[in-house]
Prior knowledge:
Radius of gyration: 22 Å
Shape: globular
Structural class: mainly alpha
Oligomer: single chain
CATH topology of the largest domain: Tetracycline Repressor, domain 2
Number of strands: 0
Amino acid sequence: MAATKTVTVPRSAAVKRRVLNRDKLEADIADVAVRVFAECGYEGTSIATIAEQAGLSKQNLMYYFPTKQALYERVLDGVLDDWLARMATLGDPSQEPRDVLRAYIQAKLRFSREQPWASRVYAMEVISGAQLYGPQIQSRVVPLLRKDIEVFERWIGEGRIGPINATHLLFAIWAMTQSYADFSAQMALVLNRKQLSRKDFDDAEATITHMVLSAVAIADPRASAHV
């Protein structure tokens, strides 16, 4: 009788598989949590509610996230990672300002369209005074904002755009684009529909881009082509 051959999985492969499984489960929990936090706010959200909607017991969820604040911070970490990755285009001074600004606005609106729950959680944290996540915002967003301002100032010095307060221009872009996530329900009501359409976002992109390029005195060929 032939001997049975035992296949031994290398320990490193087994450990890697466990880590990957844990990472996926934590990501799945965060995906559920971001919607619950967006709907109920931090104070109105319970670990039990998130666990129920994630199909887990409360004890099982707390094995991965021992406290509500730990889960909340994980959600906001993911929001900020995604947002900053999409916003990276602004920091390239070698491109044409028109192309960089258009891409920046497009990316910010795409984030509002694709990740409305994430946008709302972040907005609610900031509106409440960023009491739980303020240090992370300050350490990650502020340095990138300063680099972006340096790019604007370089463009102004080179005569590639007109003089403008870059800080407040960026604040205005954030407000205009993020409102399409945070106030989409109000916009849909005004437009007499259930939700914003892809065309609404396309129209928003064209309008906001035209306003921003006009503010920095750059003619937009796309806008003039539609006149």
